[in-house]
Every structure is written in C-alpha cells, then in structure tokens.
Amino acid sequence: MKTFEKKNTIAVIILTITTLISPLSASVLAEDFPMGYSGPGYRPYLDGKIQYGYYIDRFVQLTRRQEERVSKRKQIEEVLNYANQATPQANSAILNDKANLKYQADKLNYDIQSNIQKGRENAAATGEFNYVKNSDGKTTFFTDGLPTTILNERVLDEFGNVSRKNTFNMKYNDGRLLTNYDATIKDNLGNISRMFWSGKYTADSIFYGSDDTAANKHFSEYTVVEYDPAGNKKTTEWKAGYYEGKLLRAFSEYIADAIYGTVSFSRSNIQYKNNDPRQAYSYLEEGYGTDNLWYTSVRTETAYNDKDQVTGYYEETTKTLVDGTQSKTTVEAALTYKAVDHIYKDLEPDADRLAGTKILSIVENPDGSKRTELTVNDYSYDINNNIYNACGYSEFNGQEAQWFEFKDKTGRIVTRQEDENGNYTYFYIDQDTQEKVSVDAGDITSTLKDGNYYSGNSRLSYEILFGKPMFSNVDSRIYYTNSDDGYMFKVEDSRVSYKNGLVNNMQRQLSTDEYSTLWYTYLDRAKTHIETTRIATTYIYDFLGNLQDAKGMGSRTGWEFRTERGDWVFPYTSDLAVSYVVIQGKALRDGFTEIKHYE
Q1: What is the SS3 assignment for 35-103?
Q2: Which of 31, 42, 257, 315 could form a disulfide with 331 if both were Cys (CB 3.0 to 4.6 A apart)?
Q3: Sign of CA dihedral 479, 485, 487, 491
Q4: How confident is residue 54, by pLDDT bands cut at 50, 70 and 90?
Q5: What secondary structure letter does DSSP report for 58?
Q6: pTM
Q7: CA-to-CA distance for 331 and 527, rounded, in angstroms?
C-alpha cells in the first residue's frame, strides 16, 4: 500500500465586516476565509453560515422596537451591512444592539416625561419618595419626580424571549435630563449582562421634549460600556452630526468589542418617511469594519409596519480590499411579523414577533467570482407566542473565481507551488508512481481561465434551544458546470448535522458532522466511482462560554482518474485533519491535511 500526504495551509486574512449569508466546504464547518470571500466555490463560502447556526436572517444590527412606540428619533436601524453574515449573538442580543442603545436611553427619558405627565406620581413630584408598579411586574422608583431605579423591566428579543432589566443610579443634570445609569439584564436563561450608560444633550434639549411636543430632546453624544454574561467587554461611543428640527441627519459611531473587533463608521444624508423621526428611510454609511477595510453602504427603500419594525429595505455596499480592488454586495430584504395581543394595557403594545425573512443577495468580487442567493426562513409560534419551530430553504447560483492554468511544453497541466519566500516551482504527479515530477519554469505557459459555474439549493432544519433557533440539519445539492463547454461535470450532495447545547448556560454549537458525496458526471456516467467524505468537527469553549478552538477529523474514499487512459485507477482512502484559528469569535480554517492510502 502506498501513502501520499497532501497538505494545504491556508493563510487566514480577515476580509469583511458584514454580509447576509455565509457558511460550507471541503471541511465545511467553519470559514476557510473571512466573510465576503466567495472562495473557489460554494462550499467554502458556505462554511461561515454553519459557524453560528443561523442563515442570513441573523442580522448584524436588527433593530427591534419591542416595548413602546415612543420618542425614537435616534434609532437609525441597521438590519445588516452586507450580505454574508448576520446575527443576534444570543437571546439577549437586543440589549447589545447599538441601535437599541439609543432606544434604551430614549425610553428612560420617556418614562420620566410620561409618568409625570400622567400625574401618577403627584407625591413624588413634591419631593416625596414614591414608586409605580406596572402590570408586567416593572417597578419604577422616583425621587423629586424623577426615576432613580427601575426594576424588573420586561424586554423582548425578536422571537419573544423575555429578559428582565434592572436600572440603577440614574443621574440627571440641572435641566432634569438623564446623564448616567447602570443596568443589569437577566436573559431568559438567567444569564446576567451589565451596562453602563452616560450621555450629553444638545443645548436646545428640554426634559419634556418629544416627537409630540414643540420642544426638542436630542443626544449630542453618549457612551455605553457593556459586559456580556461571559465577561466580554463592548464599548460604544456615539456622536451626533447634526439635527434638522426633530430629524437626525448625520452621526458617527465607534464600537470596540472584545470578541468581534472594532468598527468605526458614520452615517449621513439620513432621510425619513413622511418626516417621521422614528422611520429612517435611507442613508449613506461609510467606515471601517472589523477587518480594517473601508466600505461604503447606501440603504434605501426602508419600510416599516405600524409598530415601527423594519419590513424591508434595499442596500448596496462596496468594500475596498487590500489590493485596492472592490467587491460589491446588493441586498434586498423583506421581513414579516406575527401580531401579538396587547396584554399589558398600562403599557404600549409589544412589538410583533419575527415570523419570516426573505433575503435576495448578489455578491460580485474583483477575482471574477460572483453569486446570487435567495434565502427564506419561517418561524412558528404557539398559542402563547413562544417560538417552537423554524425552517427554511436557500437557492443559489454563481461563478467561481478566475484562475491560471499552467501547462508544460508538452501540453500537460501542471501545478504551481509557492514557498515561504515567494518563489514558485512547478510539478505534476506521475500517475503510476504518485511521485512529484518537477518542471522547469521556462517551459511553463499560463492562461487565465474563467471560474466554473455552480447552482444549487439547501433545505434548512432548526431546533429551538431555549428560545433560540439553531441549525439541526442542512441538506444541500450543488451542480457544477464547466465554463468552457457548458457541460455539468460534477454534483455534490451533503448533509451537515449539528449538535447544540449549553456552555456556561449559553446556547452554543458544540459539534458538526458532515457526510458528502461527489459524483463526476461527465467522467463517471455509470455512477460507479462516487467520492465520499465524512468530517466531524468539535468546537472547544472555555468555562465562560467563549470559543477557544475547533478540531476536525475525517476520512475520504474515492478513485483517481488517469487522463491519458481515460479511466479510473488507484482506489484510495484518506485520513483528513483540519486545524483552525479563532479570530473575532469565529473558527477559521487555517490548515487542511489529507493523507492518502492507495491499495
């Protein structure tokens, strides 16, 4: 038996901030490259998707207006920035949403104004200590007519999972405007996050200002420091550009996240539907993502329901890569919601539950690769409006990156290999001995070739783990077509199964198991030489629940095709090993080893 070892080490470069879709590949369970890289085909691109257990409706900055339609003029939604990554990171994601931070501060100010105006704290207004308890269990304590502590506040995420928030140390300036507060948030699993907020206001701000009064109440800047249940720190610094009456026309924001990196961006030319400060219709966003690459994004056609929840938008994003070339992503999104009853009559109605997403994305890369994908997800709720099921499907097509074909003077196709010093060597594998045969560089000619086409579909199955939809199975079929002659040359079928569970009481993807088959249709019409691959990947977390590492092991069986003879020879089995590096909370594949054993 002969043994042949093949190693392929992939340099990990972080290339993107956001995008709506992202996951699978030869080792399918993590990203071969950062988001935004389409890779040599659909499988590498798919890897990012699997990583977190969500498809494209895992929105990067999905603004959920759960509790009250109040003064939200500073909520400029960011449902997502690109088209390949998406995400609430956990059930308490609403509390980590940067747009929601504006909402939290606004809502606290609204509580001050609303409760005083309703006359429910007459005693407190004269300097006595008082409290008000709402029907949902929330209790607000007042001193001199101003809230100083809010306990047991009910907060919902987009799927209706309930967190409870306690707010303490509420401080005010001489104009009775809130300037500081601390908060703890306990999610539906009992995990506790912490938040520290401080803010300043424009000179014309008055504490009773709102969208319904002539007076203004605008932030000039604020800072939020958050610690998630695993102790990871996130700092958000927000500064207003300028206001036009009630309307915020521009702002800038800086986010430093211990896990997900640093983001810096500004928005300008913010337009509003019917001049309603709660409904931003379009804007220009420019900035640097966690990859430190410059991007510009134009959002238009943003639509809302009657509870100010986003129901759709159109977005075009251009990212400048390290070599100065640009990639472009276009996203068209539609979101539907399930209406919920108004249970707590002394409060504004709950926001509706997220019922479905339909996302069409088109990605065009400077290497000639491109893809179009339509992904649809549906979420089901029981009679109590608790999520109990989710399913979806994805249809896609595209073209792989352009590549150089190398041939020696006899016309034989050879492989080019680069060493650590940037020097190239050329070789081919002898079909009989399976040994490398070197070819002189002077005998090499190269031709730039278009990438092959691919198309396919995926069926998405989820499990609901304590209120969070997470992948249980993804079944995919992909067809590959030669760009030269239009012949379909291979078909790939795969099933990826997921094991999910709690780590430090937080939902996590524990492992994945992939089984795939590859059929070379043109060379194997009888379908007798199917290549099969099995890869199991385990994700490793620290005791706090932070991802530390991932390891993949597997095997492959198949046959090699001898071109000069036109037949299949050399049946083999392979031992596969995949290594990863964890960057910004993601397991990125940085090495792949295949050791072949020939019979």
Answers
A1: CCCCCCCHHHHHHHHHHHCCCCCCCCCCCCCCCCCCCCCCCCCCCCCCCEECCCCCHHHHHHCHHHHHH
A2: 315
A3: negative
A4: very low
A5: S
A6: 0.78
A7: 39
Distances (CA, A) of 203 to 38, 105, 277: 49, 18, 19
- Structure-token pair, residue 48: 């990012």
Alpha helices in 75-189 (DSSP H): 98-117, 122-125
Give the count of beta carbons closer than 10 Å to the beta carbon of residue 29. Answer: 29
Tokens of 149: 């502590």
Q: Which residues contact 369 (CB under 8 A, 6 or more apart)?
A: 38, 39, 398, 399, 400, 401, 402, 451
d(CA 400, CA 454): 8
Using left for φ > 0, alpha for ψ between -120 and 50, and beta otherwise, residue 32 falls in alpha
pLDDT tens digit sequence for 335-381: 999 999 988 888 888 889 999 999 999 999 999 999 999 999 999 99
- Helix (H) or strand (E) segment spanning residue 3: strand 2-9
Which single residue is written with the structure tokens 């089995």? 573
Rounded Cα distance, 414 and 425, in Å: 10
Rounded-to-integer distance, Cα 324 and Cα 347, Å: 52
* Residue 38 CB partners (closer than 8 Å, separation 6+): 44, 45, 363, 365, 367, 369, 370, 371, 398, 400, 401
Mean pLDDT of the chain: 79
To which residue do tokens 């986003």 refer?
310
What is the largest distance, in Å, between two alpha-carbon atoms of the chain? 97
Q: Look at residues 177, 182, 168 and name the one whose alpha carbon lies nearest to residue 225.
A: 182
Location of structure tokens 């960057």: 583
Q: Are 212 and 244 in contact (CB under 8 A)?
A: no
Structure tokens given for 517: 């088959």
Coil/strand/helix, residue 485:
coil
Kindly report, residue by residue over 110-165, the tens digit of the pLDDT. 444 444 444 444 444 444 358 889 899 999 999 888 899 999 999 998 899 999 99
Among 570, 569, 568, smallest CA distance to 523 is for: 568
Q: For the beta carbon of residue 546, count every other beta carbon within 10 angstroms.
A: 19
Half-sphere exposure of 56 (CA within 13 A, CB side): 34
Angle of CA points 375, 259, 45, to nearest 5°: 30
- Tokens representing 480? 């590959």
> What's the one-letter identity of residue 385?
N
- What is the CA 104 to chain-centroid distance, rounded? 23
User: What distance in Å separates the CA atoms of residue 566 and residue 578, rounded to the nearest whole number?
Assistant: 32
User: What are the beta bridge partners of residue 336?
Assistant: 356
Secondary structure class of 76 (helix, strand, coil): coil
Taken in order 204, 209, 211, 212, the sign of the CA dihedral is: negative
